[in-house]
Amino acid sequence: MTIRSILMAGGAVCAAGYASAAELEVMHWWTSGGEAAAVAELADALNERTEHTWVDGAIAGTGQTARPIMISRITGGDPMAAFQFNHGRQAEELIEAGLLRDMTDVAEAQGWKDIVNPPLLLDACTVDGRIYCAPISIHSWQWLWLSHKAYEDAGIPVPTNWAEFVNAAPALEAAGKVPLAMGQQGWQQNGAFQVMMISLLPKEVYLQVYRDKDAEKARGPEVGRIFQALAQAREMSRDSRVQDWNQATNMVITGEAGGQIMGDWAQGEFQLAGLVAGEDYTCLPGLGGNPTLQAGGDAFYFPALDDPEMTAAQGELAALLLDPQTQVAFNLKKGSLPVRGDIDLSAANECMQKGLEILASGEAVPDVAQLISADSLTRIEDVFVQFFADETITAEEAQEQFAALIEDAD
Fold first, then answer.
1. Helix intervals (H) in 200-244
2. 214-242 confidence digits (pLDDT tens)
3. What pLDDT score was predicted for residue 17?
4. Where are the beta strands (DSSP E) in 1-140?
């Protein structure tokens, strides 16, 4: 059921139910240890630097679990004050239905167009020239996290690129290690494919497939090599029995697994465990090859409320999210990069510094969620769920399914 049909059946959204104009319920899905530490920085900033109170609305699980709950709250007439979505097209229908607040006034007053870097992050918040969200972080998927302990136990050097990682798999298996830790969820498997697309091929191929919806390119030999690499990843991760991404990260932290393809939010887990980048673990942006990052991440949206006091409080929260002090405190804990290009992150660790250097070089492209609709992305994820669950599906068969979906994507 689309949001439009829900509205026709259920009527308009109201802003009832708030105990106080100063209590801001903020919904998100940041519940792992590192994520919770980062959220605490936002809550502390609001509680200590304004008259308002952060009411935490964490939803355990992933965005796939949380987003329908958030949307149901809004369309059902019980909106929160603010909610987290990823940068991209996930809020399009809510905006079209008039359910989200236009934040252009706050953005202009705070000069967001002058400070948000790269500009495509603010572009992802913009519909028909109006800004509807406050970007909070830049997250990139293009990372391979490697356990020094696992490779030391196996008696082999830590790899420096994807080819070396694949070649090291037999030695890790002989030492009782899982070469590649991967949670058994579609978004993680799809994420690994997207990382390979942007890291092992020229970025033009990635843009031709996702931005231009070029199905013939998706059927071509270059993308075919990525499906062969994905088949290698399926083989290397066959003994990874965990579900959640942070459980897979923990396998790397403890040395049970050699590596994990995961976004830079994994850094929060390494930091929480007391591990030091460059000493206890290695991070390879672009899988050690192509130093290009997808500039995805998170933003906060604000439901349209018929309450002037709450509306004013929403504006204060939005401004606070992009405040330099908040940006530093949150992103250092989250492992993400700040959306402001004018702040000092000299305290960032080795991995964050690598990301900042790539960002400064201009080698960033839009995240796939900014290029295709959420419905199309869900159908593509289903291809990888089936591929990882059924080893009889060949790389060639999966590629054809993928290309057919690109042909029909919006």
1. 203-210, 215-219, 221-236
2. 999 999 999 999 999 999 999 999 999 89
3. 36
4. 23-28, 53-58, 82-86, 126-127, 130-131, 133-139
Average pLDDT of the residues of the chain = 90
- Locate 248 and state its tokens: 């897979």
Q: For 19-139+296-353, CATH number?
A: 3.40.190.10
CATH of 143-294+367-408, one of 3.40.190.10, 2.40.50.140, 3.40.50.150, 3.30.70.1060: 3.40.190.10
Q: How far apart are the first and last CA of the chain?
A: 18
List the chain domain ranges: 19-139+296-353, 143-294+367-408
Taking the complete model, does pTM exceed 0.90, yes or no? no
Least confident of 256-265, 282-291, 347-356: 347-356
Strand partners, 147: 281
Q: DSSP class of residue 303?
A: B
CA within 13 Å, CB half, 407: 11
Pick the closest to residue 32 from 40, 23, 20, 24 (CA basis): 40
